[in-house]
Write a structure and sequence with these properties.
heterodimer; A: mainly alpha; 5 helices; about 0% strand; B: mainly alpha
Chain lengths: ~120, ~210
């Protein structure tokens, strides 16, 4: 609220504005209500999309770290097949569309993770 | 130790479950608080946008955009910050609309008049719905007063207009108005003082000192 004493002019101006707000018609009120519901629905989507935004980056970083480990480790002999497998693993989901694939085809990504562990253990 | 004797697996499981439930409650509380806030300001914001752009549908679009942006980007902020943030977003939307409108009118000024695509207005299903409004004579007087005020406010420079709307019509204090306008409190006081003086001159003595 205002922290000074309102003049007569300010009081009248506010009253006129308040009356015009009260006079907003039913159709507009209904549309505003709907707009508010859309905005509130965005709250849920925001939580979900934040997770979706960070997942690809995390998956990509993990895959890159794994490929780097494969190259650096002296106990593991890296064959061209291993490199190809690493490259496939590096193609982890990097977009929202790819993430939909993760949920639709979890077996592929389970297999992909298994391949990754075989390569790092030097058994693949 | 007695404390550990009583801490069975069920208790541990309950403790582990408590956190997500609290998070969910906090999320619901936040959604309810935001719903209340938006319900309080939506009509006022609509009227402010309508005064600025003079078009009902565009005003609705601007308010909807402001609500969405607040929910998406600033819902996590303390609720005391929502009001200045919301009005800042709203005025950004109004300024964007005014910029686009200026560009459009420049383009259409060189465009053949027959190709503007003036389609027939769709039928409004709410056209005959009764509104819960004040009696006609009071409404007429209020309408006239508001029309005079709107015309006078429209003639103000943009920053004076914002200061007057937020400070006087929305009842925000100087600090909130400064946050909403993205300027110093001193600037708000200056803009507001000039706006009041200009409006008093425009509207005359009938509106009071």
């Amino acid at each position: 609220m205002s922290n000074h004493t309102d003049t007569e002019f300010e009081r009248k101006a506010r009253e006129a504005f308040d009356a015009s707000v009260d006079a907003v018609d039913a159709h507009t009120s209904s549309q505003l209500n709907r707009a508010r519901q859309v905005a509130l629905a965005a709250l849920d989507r925001r939580d979900h999309s934040m997770l979706r935004a960070w997942l690809p980056a995390g998956a990509l970083a993990a895959a890159a770290a794994m490929v780097l480990l494969m190259w650096q480790s002296p106990n593991v002999s890296v064959t061209p097949d291993d490199v190809a497998a690493g490259a496939a693993i590096a193609e982890l989901p990097a977009s929202d569309e790819d993430l939909d694939l993760v949920t639709e085809d979890p077996e592929f990504y389970a297999w992909s993770a298994q391949q990754a562990s075989l390569v790092t253990n030097g058994t693949g | 130790m007695k404390g550990f004797d009583t801490l069975d697996f069920a208790s541990v499981a309950r403790l582990a479950d408590a956190e997500p439930a609290t998070q969910e409650e906090a999320r619901l509380d936040q959604a309810r608080a935001l719903d209340r806030f938006l319900a309080e300001v939506e009509k006022r914001a609509f009227r402010i946008a309508q005064m600025a752009v003079r078009d009902r549908d565009d005003a609705l679009d601007i308010v909807q955009g402001a609500m969405l942006r607040l929910a998406r980007n600033y819902a996590q902020r303390p609720s005391e910050e929502w009001k200045p943030l919301f009005y800042r977003i709203l005025y950004n939307g109004i300024r964007d609309w005014q910029r686009r409108s200026a560009v459009r009118s420049r383009i259409f000024s060189i465009w053949p008049s027959g190709s503007r695509g003036d389609d027939e207005e769709p039928t409004d299903p709410y056209e005959h719905v009764a509104d819960n409004l004040p009696e006609p004579s009071r409404r007429l007087m209020a309408d006239e007063a508001m029309q005079r005020l709107e015309s006078a406010v429209e003639a103000l420079p943009a920053r004076q207009r914002e200061a007057f709307v937020l400070r006087c019509l929305e009842g925000m204090d100087v600090a909130q108005t400064a946050a909403a306008m993205g300027c110093s409190e001193g600037s708000v006081k200056t803009h507001y003082f000039r706006a009041l003086n200009a409006l008093r001159q425009q509207l005359g003595e009938a509106w009071g000192p």
